[in-house]
Amino acid sequence: MSKPLILVVNDDGYEAKGLEAMVEIAKTFGEVVVVVPDRTQSATSHAITMNVPLRVNLYKTIDGVPYYRTNGTPTDCMKLGEKVVLKGRQIDLVLSGINHGSNSSVSLLYSGTMAAAIEATFDNIPAVGISLQDYSADADFTACVHYGKIIVRQVLEKGIPPYISLNVNFPKVPLEDIKGIKITRQTKGYWHEDMEEHIDAMGRKYYWLSGYLVNTDNKEDSCEWALQHNYISIQPVQVDMTAYEAMKDIKFLEDEFKR
Amino acid sequence: MSKPLILVVNDDGYEAKGLEAMVEIAKTFGEVVVVVPDRTQSATSHAITMNVPLRVNLYKTIDGVPYYRTNGTPTDCMKLGEKVVLKGRQIDLVLSGINHGSNSSVSLLYSGTMAAAIEATFDNIPAVGISLQDYSADADFTACVHYGKIIVRQVLEKGIPPYISLNVNFPKVPLEDIKGIKITRQTKGYWHEDMEEHIDAMGRKYYWLSGYLVNTDNKEDSCEWALQHNYISIQPVQVDMTAYEAMKDIKFLEDEFKR
Lengths: 259, 259
Known about the structure:
Structural class of chain A: alpha/beta
Oligomer: homodimer
Number of strands of chain A: 11
């Protein structure tokens, strides 16, 4: 492959440390263009912007890499990158992240990082989302950059199946403690959530969402198991959410109306 | 079952005509509580609110049904309904919608309506999202209400498998033209999208997202086929997005790091 064209997007916004880590990975391999939100867009899932006009503007160029920011969501970043910024050019790879915080288990469904990667696969562009199990703004991305380069090189050289994105999650451990890579499936689980009640200066109630992931799985082939045992988890992701097994169980609904 | 407790949520907001249609269905069967966004939240997917405090307030009570609205997303509506409004009470069914516009094929991934239903299943609450293939504000929900009552009655009487939600889509046809119900799988397809360029009063460019669904499937067991042939589509939905078939295809990534 000649120098590939790589679009970098994220959900943590243009000031995130994880963005610079991803650009460092991307620059190793090709021409890089960055399109990211103008503020944090964590947990915006696959939201798209339909009720306000979208803006996208170049805000800096560093070492030949143009950085654009937009008022849109992570999914909008992917669309704006493809349709407006890189209009008419073939994108070889979309890299999303590096996210501050893991996107394992059902966090995948809430994740803006992975939604942007999934959006790329709708146009059959290979896409890799990378996340680190550390929410802090000054998280250490050293291991992510080191192994991220090796993973991206492999993806560019050997390819991944069509219409599939990769959900890559790094454990929060130093580079030397990473045990290797596991290809995993999505861990069964859910977020146990509470609504913390507070009172504002006017005496009115308001709420903050809080919670933690409950793992109901713990099997060795799951993404959470890999992270807990200091492996990098790589999960291939597809978009069919049909519960095939359940189709026969709700057949009674169809039978009611056979004509 | 004694009188079931039904939580009604939506993504079109508290003024949507589809909300009243859903309340009409729900009131037939049980005690109804409504928790909906204070503005349109279409295409907000599974977004949750983490950076601003959430508010939830009773804004009216009609025929004994309390209506609450919130600044949150559809998924937040489900969480606020469960944790704040109905704190400590067992919800028997979540009904989401009725959505103005279909949620067939990959629209499922962008849908706030279905995200709220899916969120309910994380707590193993049965959930049904209903959508009508008509985006207009004054869409005719007559057929949805008629058949919706029959579907909800069946769901309450016979149950649906655990951790499964139903994605119910109605074709835009009069009641008498509905041919029946098909249990379907998610249609393969994608949104072909463009970014319409406009110029504001200051001479600056802005963009509106536009697009249409491209159906790459057309098989008889798909949701789009059902809608196109005037059937109601009912699709069981689960949350594991792992591409199991692709796991072997990316095994090379794991092998690189075997220790």
